[in-house]
# Entry
Amino acid sequence: MPDKQTPKGNKKTDSLEQHVEDSQGQFLTTNQGVKVNDDQNSLKAGERGPSLLEDFILREKITHFDHERIPERVVHARGSGAHGVFRVAEDLSKLTKAKFLTDTSAETPVFVRFSTVAGSRGSTDLARDVRGFAVKFYTEEGNFDLVGNNMPVFFIQDAIKFPDLIHAVKPEPYNEIPQAASAHDTFWDFISNTPESAHMIMWLMSDRAIPRSYRMMEGFGVHTFRLVNAEGRSSFVKFHWKPLLGVHSVAWDEAQNISGKDPDFHRRDLWEAIENGDFPQWQLALQIVPEEDEHKFEFDLLDPTKIIPEEIVPVRRVGTLTL
Ligand code: HEM
# Structure
């Protein structure tokens, strides 16, 4: 069946076809599945009304309408996503029993969403900010979410500080300025009172915070995770995404220009690249630490404000993501 949205058709849209439903043979129903034969005339007492509250179809339609604006996410509201596939290049069964990381013939469908953190849904793509890099693997054994950012560390060591961090980075409370920007007074106040954020603020104020393209960003799972193999033996792992196009940024002056001329710059770039068949790719890469080595480091392996230096634990490329 040709997809109206993507008239060109290609191998990827064909492979998505199995997940698409057409409207043939379907009919309008209430949320509970009762067929609706008329959604334009409500039940009335007599010809001129009044409308009757017992008309549950009227009540449901109006209630649904009244609630159809879902509040935007408190963080990562502005984002762009794409479907793709993941293939593992080598059998990792020494490390894990997850099939999508051991079966080299498996092609796992994925959905990736890139985002900024602080701005509202309609804000510019080129804000100086962390970028989200969230990957959902639709594996045969269930969905696996690898939620990441384009920077390898995080601001805080304890989740209880997250609301304070986000309140601080959001616009100033008395005038709701500035939109989608990290470097402003309330944020500097938080940062200067939170020494553990020193590492992350270096990344945030670097060129990483103004990427040239989503296709040219690294991704990091940030936290240290655990892989478990079929024998129940576990290893600690840091997840990395390495873009095949390399890591590139724009200059701050360029970022400000682009924000005015094309606030959808990153969304457009991703859309056009994929439409043109220029499919973005990343390699999945792992830093592995055997469980028994957990305490051999000068820092806590579970501290998300620290990286594991790549010269101590090398980054091993194990598979490819294609959007
Ligand atoms: C205390 C720690 C954290 C808290 C409380 C927190 C909270 C949140 C919340 C509430 C959302 C919005 C979810 C929604 O409305 O659907 C979100 C989204 C997100 N977070 Fe976090 N977060 C934390 C740490 C992190 C870290 C360390 C990373 C990076 C590894 C991260 C990456 C993301 C991404 C990429 C999204 C957007 C996901 C998407 O595109 O669907 N967060 N987070």
